[in-house]
Design goal:
The structure holds two protein chains of two kinds.
Chain A (H helix, E strand, L loop, with lengths): L8 E5 L3 H11 L14 E7 L2 E7 L1 H5 L8 H7 L4 E4 L2 H14 L7 E3 L4 E5 L4 H4 L2 H15 L4 E5 L2 H10 L4 E3 L5 H5 L11 H9 L5 H6 L2 H8 L2 H10 L15 E11 L2 H22 L1 E12 L4 E12 L2 H15 L9 E13 L12 H19 L20 E5 L9 E5 H6 L23 E8 L1 E4 L6 E6 L2 E14 L6 H4 L7 E8 L4 E7 L12 E7 L2
Helix pairs in contact in A: 7-12, 13-14, 14-15
Chain B lengths: L1 H32 L25 H7 L7 E7 L5 H19 L5 E4 L2 H7 L1 E2 L1 H7 L6 E4 L4 H12 L6 E6 L8 H14 L2 E7 L10 E7 L4 H6 L15 E9 L7 E7 L4 E3 L21 H19 L1
Helix pairs in contact in B: 6-7
Classes of the chains: A alpha+beta, B alpha/beta.
């Protein structure tokens, strides 16, 4: 006996989203509540097939008989007071993303469904809202207050919910598990997520409703129209599984607080973060992990959602550290942080966690582990204050180059001095941390590279050098418009090009470099190199001189 | 029997007297060296921690800086022009290496360098720092975008325990880093006892609240120049020689200021030396760590002749 599936999917449909956006911009969010009868019908127009056509209509225009795709000239002739606005698909998309962000308050599993719909998997959160009816009425009421015309349906699978929300008779439909076939019968074929050409073809053979398709034998229809109609039908009836992929990654741990009275002050938010951190701490402690990347989501009363992300270089569990990091992030926002009329939901998500090394506390103060903890906290606070707020989707921890973060210098095997060292952010290094071997204190670390400058120019700066051709050392040179006479020199040290690196070889065989360490009369030491060879081996270009570094 | 008891008693009395004398001597020495004795310890016990002093190894400079000198609080290091930034960074690396040599520890050093400084003076190179004796694995590097951010990071880091030093590598803005900012940094750093080095390149000297300010300039130091002032008459050729610095004390709260001291750095033993005091110089058969192949000497012979010919013809 097949077990009854217990998932509940909510399909949200916003039929007049683009025109609602225009109305909200003109009259404010509550324009539906104070509806004016003398408002002219509004359409959005765009150029399609070499003519200006209607892209979207609002309810009044739809009631007066205007259709999508109708020529604009005809429409204007029929309705003299028509209000025409150019269509703006990017703004519509942005608004849809903002609504999807806002729907995060119900469930984190939100998926897009075309340009005007959303799927929300509300299986696990119905009990938080007191049942399906309460959730639906809350959702539709809030959307109405924001100025959107919305229709929604809850069903066991996405296909039925889609069909019920599009073609159903009520704004809110509840489909019991097992009643899908009965509900779907009277709906038209556009509720099955088929494209226009396929629907036209099916109508030509006389199939106009889903009920008719259900009764017809499958084989001839599949031969003629492909497998798509029946695949969609089976998905709608629940016989084929359909997987919804949420638009944002689902956090591992999450804790939220819904407030009866909205808060706007930063101190209140910090206190809330502290208490949420305490709840998250107990859950993390049970699993033995600590948080590495955390996100604070603040839902404003008027629908805007703010997300603040912080990352740490080592697993963190205690609420004080979490509050410190978010405090720095809030400070870095500064004036951009606008609470509006206040936040009514505050949620702390742990996006990624890693194993937490437990250390046994002792009675000494100022022992070793505390020092490294201080340094880690300092680096995390610096990253939170000055780094970017982007959520690092890449789980390997690669930080983007523009964000400010603390890093270490790691040696790298390369002939070219500017590539012999890489700057590795501390977060990445902490992931692959090996225990540092204890080096003897007084001896400088062993180096096989030879003499190297203290400061390196990246990229090397070209200089004008007077030198004996072909292999002589520099005698005098002009660098940054100042002339220097070489008193002493050491060299040359030849560093060959790296023939195995594809990106260098693409520009031609990399030329060798002859490095000279020169000193001028005042005692300044420079690191010059000549790139290229004279004669036939050097190719067409004559060698050039560069300044690469300064010595102590 | 009684004679033994008397002898034992005498010996005990002498031992106690010796202990008392030794304890008093130890106390005097500690007072001279500036070591605070451990409270609660017995009089005849040695103080628990032998505090070591930082010394350059160059006597006139150590005398000018005073006996109780430690790198605590803000210290400013200047160079007159941006092209001297190599000498400035090298001197700082040498000081950090010597600090590690005397006091030990593997604590990290935070290096803060705003982005435009890296474009002008180049970025610190780990292999070069290793050649001078400072382990680049201890370096925590950060490049903020503005000077305000850099000063904020410095202030927060100065209040953190667990760091060996904080280095702010910057080119001062037109308004300059004035009394207020330096005083704030100094107070923070002195509270935790952390050395904060403010490196400024090519800046005009303004008033500062730091207790110590040095100006670093490069000095030539080929072996023939080095040995010219010493008793050794043999002039040895062999390349450029060890790094040399001319340190001028611009501001010194604990001693005289204004003098310039010439010193050279020996990375193997982590110490400075002067031409007059060659005892700290590295003893190795003519070759300096990092001198090139054997061809160098011959080439230097040949080309020094050519160079001198060119310079004579100038």
């Amino acid at each position: 006996m097949l077990s009854v599936k217990s998932t509940r999917i909510l399909a949200l449909y916003l039929p007049y989203l683009p025109t609602d956006r225009t109305h909200r911009a003109r009259y404010g969010g509550k324009w539906r509540a104070c509806e004016r009868a003398d408002r002219p019908p509004l359409v959005h127009a765009h150029k399609h097939k070499n003519a200006m056509r209607i892209a979207h209509c609002d309810e009044k225009a739809a009631r007066s008989g205007l259709r999508i795709g109708q020529g604009l000239a005809d429409a204007k002739a029929a309705h003299a007071n028509l209000d025409v606005v150019p269509a703006n698909p990017e703004a519509d998309k942005a608004l849809m993303m903002a609504i999807a962000d806002w729907c995060d308050r119900y469930t984190p599993l939100v998926a897009f469904d075309g340009p005007d719909g959303l799927f929300m998997d509300v299986t696990g959160c119905l009990h938080l809202f007191g049942g399906e009816a309460a959730l639906m009425s809350d959702l539709l009421a809030r959307l109405f207050d924001q100025g959107f015309c919305a229709r929604a349906a809850i069903a066991t699978n996405a296909g039925t919910a889609f069909a019920a929300s599009r073609a159903g008779s009520h704004d809110a439909t509840f489909v019991e598990p097992g009643a899908e076939a009965q509900i779907l019968r009277p709906f038209g074929l556009s509720a099955l997520r088929l494209d226009e050409a396929l629907i036209a073809g099916l109508e030509k053979v006389g199939l106009k409703t889903i009920g008719q398709i259900m009764d017809v034998p499958r084989a001839p229809l599949t031969r003629r129209f492909g497998c798509l109609p029946f695949m969609r039908l089976d998905q709608a009836l629940g016989q084929i599984d359909e997987v919804l992929s949420p638009r944002l990654p689902v956090p591992d741990f999450s804790s939220e607080r819904r407030l009866a009275e909205p808060v706007g002050l930063i101190e209140d938010i910090e206190r809330l973060v502290f208490s949420l951190g305490g709840q998250v701490q107990s859950v993390l402690a049970k699993k033995g992990v600590g948080a590495r990347m955390m996100e604070l989501t603040l839902f404003r009363i008027d629908g805007q959602v703010s997300r603040l992300c912080v990352g740490t270089s080592h697993p963190v569990r205690d609420p004080e550290t979490i509050v410190k990091l978010f405090r720095e992030r809030l400070k870095s926002l500064g004036d951009d942080f606008d609470a509006g009329y206040g936040f009514d939901i505050v949620r702390l998500n742990v996006l990624s966690a890693s194993n937490f090394d437990e250390t046994q506390g002792d009675f000494n103060d100022g022992a070793g582990p505390d020092k490294s903890h201080d340094i880690h906290t300092l680096m995390d606070r610096i990253s939170a204050r000055l780094g970017s707020n982007m959520m690092m989707q890449d789980q390997s921890g690669r930080a983007n180059g523009s964000s400010v973060c603390v890093g270490r210098l790691e040696p790298h095997e390369s002939h070219l001095p500017e590539r012999a060292e890489t700057y590795v952010p501390v977060t990445q290094r902490a992931k692959s941390a090996k225990p540092k071997s204890v080096k003897p204190n007084s001896a400088p670390p062993p180096h096989a590279l030879g003499v190297r400058p203290v400061r390196l120019f990246d990229p090397p700066e070209p200089v004008d050098v007077v030198a004996q051709v072909p292999e002589g050392p520099p005698v005098q040179f002009r660098w940054r418009r100042a002339l220097y006479r070489v008193e002493r020199f050491e060299g040359p040290e030849r560093l060959a090009g790296e023939w195995w690196c594809e990106d260098l070889v693409a520009k031609g065989t990399p030329a060798p470099r002859d490095y000279y360490r020169v000193e001028d009369g005042d005692g300044r030491r420079f690191w010059l190199f000549r790139q290229g060879l004279y004669g036939p081996r050097g190719g067409q270009e004559p060698p050039r001189w560069f300044m690469h570094g300064l010595f102590a | 029997m009684t004679s033994f008891r008397h002898v034992a008693a005498d010996r005990l009395f002498v031992a106690q007297k010796r202990q008392r004398i030794l304890a008093r001597l130890r106390k005097d020495i500690n007072a001279l060296e500036g070591v605070t004795p451990d409270f609660g310890a017995d009089d005849h016990a040695a103080p628990v921690s032998q505090k070591r002093q930082f010394s350059f190894g160059v006597e006139p400079l150590d005398r000018a800086l005073g006996d109780a000198f430690n790198w605590r609080g803000l210290c400013e290091l200047h160079s007159a022009t941006a092209r001297d930034s190599g000498a400035l960074t090298g001197f700082l690396a040498a000081v950090l290496a010597r600090h590690t040599h005397i006091f030990g520890g593997e604590d990290p050093v935070l290096w803060i360098a705003p982005h435009h400084v890296l474009c002008e003076a180049g970025r610190p190179y780990g292999h070069g720092l290793a050649w001078l004796g400072f382990d680049p694995a201890r370096l925590l590097f950060i490049a903020p975008r503005t000077i305000g951010d850099a000063l904020w990071i410095c202030e927060e880091a100065a209040a953190t325990s667990g760091l060996c030093a904080v280095v702010v590598d910057m080119r001062a803005p037109k308004a300059g880093i004035g009394l207020r900012e330096t005083r704030r940094l100094h107070m923070r750093a002195a509270r935790t006892g952390l050395p904060v080095f403010l490196l400024q390149q090519s800046v005009q000297l303004a008033a500062t609240s730091a207790p110590l300010r040095l100006t670093v300039a490069p000095r030539p130091c080929a072996n023939d120049v080095l040995f010219a002032e010493s008793e050794q008459a043999v002039i040895r050729r062999g390349g450029i020689g060890p790094p040399g610095f001319g340190i001028t004390l611009d501001k010194n709260k604990s001693g005289p200021a204004g003098n310039t001291y010439r010193m050279y750095w020996n990375p193997h033993d982590s110490c400075f030396f002067t031409p007059h005091n060659q005892s700290n110089r590295a003893r190795s058969s003519g070759s300096f760590p990092g001198a090139q192949s054997a061809n160098v000497e011959r080439q230097v012979h040949a080309d020094l002749g050519a160079l001198s010919a060119i310079s004579a013809n100038r």
